[in-house]
Write a structure and sequence with these properties.
Elements (H helix, E strand, L loop, with lengths): L1 E2 L14 H6 L9 E6 L5 H14 L4 E5 L4 H11 L6 E5 L4 H5 L16 H13 L3 E5 L1 H8 L2 H16 L4 E6 L9 H5 L2 E8 L7 E9 L3 E2 L3 E7 L2 E5 L15 E2 L4 H6 L4 E2 L3 E7 L4 H15 L2 E6 L4 H10 L4 H6 L3 E5 L7 H13 L3 E7 L1 H6 L7 H14 L3 E8 L18 E10 L2 E11 L8 E7 L2 E8 L2 E2 L7 E2 L16
Parallel strand pairs: 2-6, 2-7, 3-4, 3-5, 5-6, 14-18, 14-19, 15-16, 15-17, 17-18
Antiparallel strand pairs: 1-9, 7-8, 8-10, 10-11, 12-13, 19-20, 20-21, 21-22, 23-24
Helix pairs in contact: 6-7, 13-15
């Protein structure tokens, strides 16, 4: 958490947005002046209307003073969100051309002697008439135009602040940042500042994010938080901080249901750990994860399966090819499938969905298939490792078993991973193709297990109607770590029969 100056005293009031309230540790200090700033289209008006609607729900008198948008435009925004603005008094004060051309001398010798501009005076008169507990003024760019220079503009905003300081009223000022000069003087005047941004990436939907720049005397979660404008308002996804979440759990084994695989893992994967399934495309990583998911369903544990690369139909067909009936487990809510479109979903939204599945749905196994798709969801891949670290730490502290699928570049010969997550993984299972007697086969080895014993051997495995079949250890191998495994034995330990791969 980032800290403001001083100590927070008194009761907070809700911003009307649960995500922003969470970031602020409960909401805003009442009877203060705040600034929401951002370029046009960032979501300021929507966030401000949420603030007023929350007050209206609580029976408060609330006032929206608009100097830029018409009342009809605000009503259209409300209708598209399904909101009723009947409890919000809207005052439209678009300045006329005559007012913009008029020279106005504004001084601030004393509050009683303040000679405010015509628009500012109208604002104060209406506030006195309505006597609201929440006010939004949209937007400061119009006052900036009326003031004509930065000194007069600052005096006007200071006069507004001083006027509201003597009233039991919480004020939100909106600024569209159209000023050519970096107007940081607003930051010093305001009790708190919230920045909203809209980012355009090279491909896919635009991304929006929010950052609390300042909150006096208040702890808040710093940094950028992803957000999205949907019907019903703004969904803010507070940045996941794993250290804020911890649950006491028993670290017993979560078996895979396959004796051979569990033997390789020294009994299975412990709760609160994660395993990286790494190998070339089609070698069986997703099928191995499905085997684990069905074993969890058999125990009554819920699984959340996040698919970046494949649809529901493909997953169900893959399970059927393995002799696994996935549909009943889905219908019972034991396997919760969600397809993720990386072009449309931000990493913050994805982390929020995972957290909800764990906190609200009681999920005990999480499968992310695949990390390659997750990588594509990042507008800047430099932060993938940091975000994944927080997510894995959170899941570990909740006692959740996590399976991460990572496809390597290439299918045969030397292969390479698009990123290295092995140091974050508690266990690493390496899957490889190998050739023997003119046939392509599959081999698996556990190359790392942080939490205890594991086999050092390499075993062949098959995928088919019998599900996952793991063979005995194979000793006559060379070139496995080089990416070109070659079996030099006589063939006796190899699994018999034709292999019907399930992918």
């Amino acid at each position: 958490m980032q800290h403001g100056s001083g100590q927070q005293i008194g009761k907070r009031i809700s911003t009307g947005n649960p995500g922003l309230d969470d970031i602020l540790g409960g909401g805003l200090d009442p009877d203060r002046l705040y600034l929401y700033e951002g370029r046009p289209g960032a979501g300021k008006t929507t966030l401000a209307l949420e603030f007023l609607l929350e007050g209206a729900r609580r029976g408060e008198r609330v006032l929206y003073i608009t100097l830029s948008e018409s009342q009809r435009e605000l009503q259209l925004v409300a209708e598209r969100h399904g909101w009723d603005l009947s409890g919000v008094e809207v005052i439209e004060m678009a300045p006329s051309e005559a007012m913009l051309e008029q020279e106005q001398e504004i001084t601030l010798l004393h509050p009683a002697e303040a000679e405010l501009g015509q628009t500012t005076r109208l604002i104060l008169d209406r506030v006195e008439q309505v006597n609201p507990s929440r006010v939004v003024i949209d937007s400061l760019s119009e006052l900036r135009l009326l003031a004509q220079n930065s000194l007069r503009y600052r005096r006007q905003v200071l006069a507004l602040k001083q006027f509201f300081a003597n009233r039991n009223c919480t004020v939100v000022l909106l600024d569209d940042m159209t000023s050519s000069e970096g107007d940081l003087q607003l930051h010093s005047i305001s009790h708190g500042v919230v920045l909203l941004e809209q980012l355009v990436i090279d491909y896919g939907a635009e991304r929006r994010r929010l950052r609390v720049i300042k909150m006096r005397g208040m702890d808040f979660r710093g940094g950028f938080h992803d957000m999205k404008i949907v019907r019903g308002g703004i969904e803010v996804y507070p940045r996941l901080v794993a250290s804020e979440h911890h649950t006491i759990f028993t670290g017993d084994f979560a078996p895979s249901g396959n004796p051979g695989l569990d033997m390789m893992l020294g009994g299975g994967l412990e709760r609160g750990t994660n395993a990286l399934l790494i190998g070339p495309a089609g070698v069986g990583k997703s099928s191995l994860a499905l085997t684990y998911a069905m074993a969890a369903a058999g125990r009554g544990d819920r699984t959340a399966l996040f698919a970046f690369d494949e649809g529901r139909g493909t997953i169900v067909a893959r399970a059927q090819a393995l002799g696994l009936d996935l549909l009943p487990a889905m219908e019972q809510g034991l396997v919760m499938f969600q397809q993720i479109d990386p072009a449309e979903m931000s990493p913050g939204e994805f982390a929020s969905i995972v957290r909800r599945r764990v906190d609200e749905d009681g999920v005990r196994l999480v499968v992310i298939d695949s990390l390659n798709g997750y990588l594509n969801a990042m507008p800047d891949g430099r932060f993938l490792i940091l975000q994944m670290h927080e997510l894995l730490t959170f899941l570990a502290q909740q006692g959740v078993v996590t399976l991460l699928v990572l496809a390597q570049h290439g299918m045969v010969g030397p292969v390479d991973a698009p990123l290295d997550l092995s140091y974050l993984s508690d266990a690493v299972l390496m899957l490889r193709y190998f050739e023997h007697a003119g046939r392509v086969r599959r081999a698996m080895s556990v190359v790392k297990k942080r939490s205890g014993y594991h086999e050092q051997s390499i075993r062949e495995f098959q995928l088919g109607q019998r599900g996952l079949v793991v063979g005995p250890p194979l000793t006559d191998f060379r070139g496995v770590l080089a990416g070109v495994p070659t079996y030099t034995g006589d063939g006796m330990p190899l699994l018999p029969g034709e292999e019907h791969a399930a992918g």
